[in-house]
Amino acid sequence: MIQTIRGFRDILPADTFLWQAIEKTASELFENFGFQEIRIPIMEKTELFARSIGETTDIVEKEMYTFADRKGDKLTLRPEATASVVRSYIQHNMGSSDPVQKLYTIGPMFRRERPQKGRYRQFYQINAEVFGIASPYIDAQLILILNELFKRLGLSELKAHINSLGCKECRPTFQKELLSVLNDKKEHLCENCIRRMEKNPLRTLDCKVPTCREALKDAPSTLGHLCNGCRDHFETVKSVLKDQNVDFTVDKTLVRGLDYYSKTTFEILTTALGAQSAVAGGGRYDALIKELDGPDTYGIGFAIGLDRLAEIVAQMVNEKLTQTQDSSPKDDLQSDFMKLLSARFPDLFIIPIGEKAFRLAYLWSSALNIAGIRTETDYSGRSLKSLMKRADKLNCAYVLIAGDQEIEDNALVLRDMKTKEQYFITTDNPVEQIQTLLSRV
Ligand code: AMP
Predict the structure, then answer these.
(1) HSE of 274 in the Cβ direction (CA atoms, 13 Å)?
(2) Distance CA 131, CA 284 (A)
(3) What residues contact residue 418 under an 8 Å CB cut-off, 6+ apart?
(4) CA gap 429, 437 in Å, rounded
(5) For position 333, what pLDDT does the model report?
(6) Distance (Å, rounded) from C-alpha 288 to C-alpha 413?
(7) d(CA 138, CA 128)
(8) Which member of 42, 139, 303, 381 has the greatest number of CB atoms within 10 A?
(9) 326-384 pLDDT, tens per residue?
(10) Cα dist. 219→212, 257, 391 in Å?
(11) How far apart are CA 229 and CA 164, in angstroms?
């Protein structure tokens, strides 16, 4: 039997309802902040990623799905979205109508990493990018938006890690100093760090190899070398975050894996599932647009890892739902997000019993579906008892018992599955009656 490729997977209906609810919560929030959706191709010319992400990054060096198409053009399945959104901003001259553009996109990314739990070769991200704003307020606002989104999804123990990488003015002096430390400590560094020292010394700062960490624990940080402009920028980001009660910590090792960042970088970490894990990351990339032959304007953005986020949210939802079985419902079960999740269950199950009932049940249920009430019925002629069981299994809020006898008596029984309350419906305009009843209760 043919199976999925290693590191690729299906997201099945049991999970997609949760993904959709997360995506809806995110897009609504982003749109409140003035973002508009953009949809970009999943494949681009390889050069776009090589030039933007950086030749010496893990992604470009060893993780891209790159191949020649039939004409020999070098193409790559996108490993991230920023480069494509920037390409689109430039290609469509978006800045000419309004230099300020706030865009978001949701979709799959491809990296040939070693698959493990929470790491896939096709994974999904929610990305947001802002062009044309130099102000540090927008840096703080992006972190605020992430914080708010994760709160809405019920995540707890959130922490924003932030850092500043400086700009093309102050980074060279810092890199020089770092390089001399790296040369001194060379014999303690891993192969990767030694290879990257010359081209991208910053990356050595977030190397996870213990000997590198130990050797570089007192290495100079970008924060100690910021020019006045970068320092003021970073101070404002911090003070705005404080004003908005966003919990953050300054993390001088947060250099991120891509070359294009400058000034603010950030990651949002959660300990919701015990171990600390990053659910989103981003930063400013003020030089990138010009580097890709666009206008000299500002850029900043973030990426949320949807696979990991969905796993965390699923666990939290399950925990909440099991808690409610033995105690009173928690307040946050009333949240908009939880309401979105429960909207997946049918509103109504029509139980037909007898010849006449079948046809009417089918007609009524289709009319209710069209009217926006999620209605299921049955075509197998099973007994009342077994259909009640099925309605229960499907988590239907109501059942309508429509036997030939009830139809004859002109008194259909609508039962609330939770409270067991019963209402009588006549056969002349059941759709309207059910609509009215369900909108009232
Ligand atoms: P990055 O673009 O590497 O900064 O990643 C942003 C977010 O995407 C991370 O915080 C992860 O949650 C997620 N992510 C990155 N790579 C993968 C992967 N291979 N599988 C699943 N999620 C990923």
Answers:
(1) 1
(2) 10
(3) 397
(4) 13
(5) 63
(6) 65
(7) 12
(8) 139
(9) 555 455 666 889 888 887 889 999 999 998 899 999 999 999 999 999 999 998 989 99
(10) 11, 18, 64
(11) 11
Mutational test site, ligand 1, from 77, 258, 276, 308, max ligand atoms within 8 Å of CB = 308
**Burial status of residue 214 (CB atoms within 10 A of its CB: 0-12, 13-18, 19 or more):** exposed
> Looking at this protein, which amino acid is placed at residue 56?
T
Q: Amino acid identity, residue 302?
A: F
* pLDDT score at 279: 94
Six-digit token string for 282: 């981003």
Among the atoms of ligand 1, which is closest to the Cα of residue 125?
Answer: 8
Ligand 1 within 6 A of 254 CB?
A: no
Residue 298 has pLDDT above 90, yes or no: yes
Any ligand 1 atom below 6 A from CB of 206: no
Dump pLDDT digits (tens) for 28-44: 999 999 999 999 999 99
Q: To test ligand 1's pocket by mutation, which of 5, 105, 109, 254 has the most ligand atoms within 8 angstroms of CB? A: 109
Whole-number Å distance between alpha carbons of 38 and 217: 41
Task: Please check whether residue 83 is in contact with residue 289, taking contact to mean a CB–CB distance below 8 angstroms.
Answer: no
Q: Which two tokens stand for residue 423?
A: 């209402």
**What is the residue with the minimal CA distance to atom 15 of ligand 1?**
305
Query: Are the C-beta atoms of residues 95 and 86 closer than 8 Å to each other?
Result: no
Cα distances (angstroms) measured from residue 337 to each of 24, 79, 156, 332 = 9, 29, 15, 9
Residue 130, classified by CB atoms within 10 Å of its CB into exposed (0-12), middle (13-18) or buried (19+), is buried
Give the pair of three-digit tokens for residue 205: 């700062």
Cα-to-centroid distance, 99 and ligand 1 (Å): 29
The best mutation among 9, 57, 119 to test binding of ligand 1, ranked by most ligand atoms within 8 Å of the C-beta, falls on: 119
